[in-house]
Amino acid sequence: MTFGIRGNINKTEIAPIVYRLAKGMQSAGIQFIVEKTISTKIGKEFKYRLPYKYTAEDKELPKLSDFIISIGGDGTFLATAKLVGNRNIPIIGVNLGKLGFLAENSTRDILGFIKNVIKGRYFIDERIILETNAVSPSKMKKTLHAINEIVVNQNEIVKTIEISVYFNNQLVNSYHADGIIISTPTGSTGYSLSAGGPIVFPKTDVFILSPLSPHTLTARPVILPDNGVFKVKIKSRVPINVVSDGNDILKLKAPAIIEVKKASYSVKIAKSLESNYFKVLTSKLLWGEDKRKKRRF
After folding, report:
1. How far is CA 111 from CA 80, 203, 269, in A?
2. What angle do CA 45, 51, 56 make, to 5 degrees?
3. Is residue 6 within 8 Å of residue 17, measured between CB atoms?
4. φ, ψ for residue 227 (rounded to 5)?
């Protein structure tokens, strides 16, 4: 069993954490491969060169690993999931960020969790992925994938755009708004939540449709089954963006049509048997916390 290790190279603590993890895994006889940029950082900071067989280019990690350890925040986890794609390789998230809904494990516990994975003491949590096909007036087609959400909004100019959303060819609503969000349950605690959307348990088979700053008081988020297909028709005088997980951006000229559906594959997360979604909500969002019960002195 081989564990690929990658992470957010912009984090100052990434080299010390991976250095300690690599030394611990070597001592325990666990096979691993470190992304080369991190390996170079370790060499500079600790004067320690990992053997060549323990390093690989980032894009090669999925080919060489049975599990991939993602060290950073949820953004790093999302990038790791896109690197893995449809290869069905479980990801182990280690949190260095602010929230850590996807990257749940702490740095102090990760080696122990890896040992539990080897012993089979873990479970796989599968999350759905959105597949988006955008067609511009030039008939050029581009496909994006997202774990959290697909956002359609205006580009550069603060101006509302006209959006008509169909679900299984039935009109859901037409919006004059800054844009819309189509979210998975995983993404319900992300941008969708900021836009007034509900918190949705990750194993629920639904999509969440949320308008962004709609020019009406009656437009509200809608929950729809994930076995259907969205067709989004956009009219705008200005260019529009189709954004996947806040990262991959496709720029289109209106009028344009975007189709969104559940992808044929999912992202797999390796988790501790003690993992509890509601405890994560409480610790990360202070969900359900009653400050009146706290001691004043």
Report:
1. 19, 27, 16
2. 90
3. no
4. -95, 10
- Are 187 and 202 contacting, i.e. CB atoms less than 8 angstroms apart? no
Cut 0.85: pTM above it: yes
Counting runs of H as helices and runs of E as strands, what totals does the chain give?
7, 17
Q: Where are the alpha helices (DSSP H) in 28-135?
A: 36-46, 61-64, 74-84, 110-118
Residues contacting residue 176 through CB under 8 Å, at least 6 positions apart:
160, 161, 162, 214, 215, 216
pLDDT-based confidence at residue 23 (cuts at 50, 70, 90): very high
Contacts of 13 by beta carbon, 8 Å cutoff, 6+ apart: 96
Identify whether the C-beta of residue 70 lies closer than 8 Å to the C-beta of residue 91.
yes
Which residue in the block uniquely carries the two structure tokens 């470190």? 34
Catalytic hit among 74, 125, 178, 245: 74
Position with higher pLDDT, 199 vs 140: 199
Q: DSSP letters along 191-255, please?
A: HHHHTTPPP--TTS-EEEEEEES-SSSS---EEEETTS-EEEEEE-SS-EEEEETTTEEEEEPSS
Residue with tokens 């348990």: 201
* Nearest by Cα to 75 from 213, 191, 211, 200: 191
Residue 296 clears pLDDT 80, i.e. is over it:
no
* For the chain, percent of residues with pLDDT exceeding 70: 92
Which SS3 state, helix, strand or coil, does residue 150 take?
strand
- The H or E element containing residue 258 is strand 256-271
Question: Tokens 């951006």, residue?
Answer: 249
Indicate the DSSP class of residue 278: H
**Is position 58 annotated as part of the catalytic site?**
no
- Domains of the chain by range and CATH? 2-122+272-291 (3.40.50.10330), 129-264 (2.60.200.30)
